[in-house]
Amino acid sequence: MRNYKIGIIKGDGIGPEIVEEAIKVLDAVASKEGFNLEYNEYLLGGAAVDVFDNPCPDETIKGSLNSDAVLFGAIGGPKWESLPKEKRPESGLLKLRKSLGLFANIRPAIIFDELVNASSLKPEVIKGVDLTVVRELTGGIYFGEPRYKDDNKAYNTMIYTRDEIARIAKIAFEEAMKRKKKVTSVDKANVLEVSELWREVVEEVAKNYPEVELEHMYVDNAAMQLVRDPKQFDVILTGNIFGDILSDEASMIVGSIGLLPSASIGGKVGLFEPIHGSAPDIAGQGIANPIATILSAAMMLDFLNETSAAERIRNAIKEVLKEGYRTKDIAAFDAKEVVTTSEMGSLIADHAAN
Ligand SMILES: NC(=O)C1=CN([C@@H]2O[C@H](COP(=O)(O)OP(=O)(O)OC[C@H]3O[C@@H](n4cnc5c(N)ncnc54)[C@H](O)[C@@H]3O)[C@@H](O)[C@H]2O)C=CC1
Ligand SMILES: CC(C)CC(=O)C(=O)O
Ligand SMILES: [Mg+2]
């Protein structure tokens, strides 16, 4: 029987609640499709600070590297906010991504027909949206040195090297080849030198993909165009901070941040995680939407070449939404019944097993 070692990182806040539901669904499809998943749990973020006084223990890095793939919830929360920078949960996540070499974060935003009324945008604007943000994940301003803060002055540095830009651009063009063959590279080249280099290198990489249409867009315009006419986009290629922001925006086109999954790739092992954070404001209430994490688990199965199991999960989600079940965040329209995090996970697992 096919056997996969899956690292599980639940994290903080709603992390444990949503990852539990994804495991439920993974177990349902694994037995149906005839493969075995062996789970090993590792700590990251606040949960790791509480036990090891370290937001990214070596054991988590080693364990992840020993896995075939890692499923991750989210980290962070007010409990750890006043710790020194290096002890904060967010530093732990950045360190894990860097240590695993995960330079590419793929964040698809695909509208479910059943949810066209759940978005605050008009149905005719969003029906059929199918875009993906390819975000550079281990460079840019989140990692650049020097960085500094005193009482009167603070700064960070946005750095990209030619090689870093070329490798993420290649991922975006490869993605576009599998899709609608259009790349929109988003930058701020009218102001930033780092964006000028970004454009030059993206143009060079584009020469290897003559079938793909390339356009450049400034990030402020991109933020506006995303809500004006999201269907104009296929692949959005961008840097770390712009991708972080634009993908949260894209989630609201689809209906909720609780719906957007992601795959962080580029190293030996992939990390699969919802795009949202640990949502401390709703943690422990049983109202978090687990679908982003369940879709991340489906992306994980795709990367493990268990594509039929991944499709089974996506179909199960569609069926459950078609039947009118909604978590609170997407309950505003068309809800037949508002369900808890755990009920939503069980409904999807039941459909996926049939
Ligand atoms: N990848 C990660 O682990 C990330 C961690 N964070 C951390 O998470 C903490 C909270 O950050 P926020 O800025 O509040 O962002 P957030 O994404 O956690 O929450 C933003 C808003 O969306 C809602 N939300 C998020 N996920 C949801 C879900 N699955 N279902 C329903 N509603 C959902 C929350 O309730 C909140 O109102 C911070 O410590 C932040 O640093 C933030 C983003 C990513
Ligand atoms: C919490 C940060 C480290 C990153 C973030 O917001 C994200 O990856 O979406
Ligand atoms: Mg973010």
TrEMBL record:
One of its GO terms (molecular function) is NAD binding. It holds the Pfam family Iso_dh. Its EC number is 1.1.1.85. Binds 1 Mg(2+) or Mn(2+) ion per subunit. Pathway: Amino-acid biosynthesis; L-leucine biosynthesis; L-leucine from 3-methyl-2-oxobutanoate: step 3/4. InterPro entries: IsoCit/isopropylmalate_DH_CS, IsoPropMal-DH-like_dom, Isopropylmalate_DH. Substrate binds at R97, R107, R135, D220. It catalyses: (2R,3S)-3-isopropylmalate + NAD(+) = 4-methyl-2-oxopentanoate + CO2 + NADH. It comes from the Bacteria. It is an enzyme of class 1 (oxidoreductase). Residues 5-348 form the Isopropylmalate dehydrogenase-like domain. One of its GO terms (cellular component) is cytosol. The record marks Y142, K188 as: Important for catalysis. NAD(+) binds at residues 77-90, 277-289. Homodimer. Belongs to the isocitrate and isopropylmalate dehydrogenases family. LeuB type 1 subfamily. HAMAP family: LeuB_type1. Catalyzes the oxidation of 3-carboxy-2-hydroxy-4-methylpentanoate (3-isopropylmalate) to 3-carboxy-4-methyl-2-oxopentanoate. The product decarboxylates to 4-methyl-2 oxopentanoate. This is 3-isopropylmalate dehydrogenase. The lineage of its organism: Bacteria, Pseudomonadati, Campylobacterota, Epsilonproteobacteria, Nautiliales. The gene is leuB.
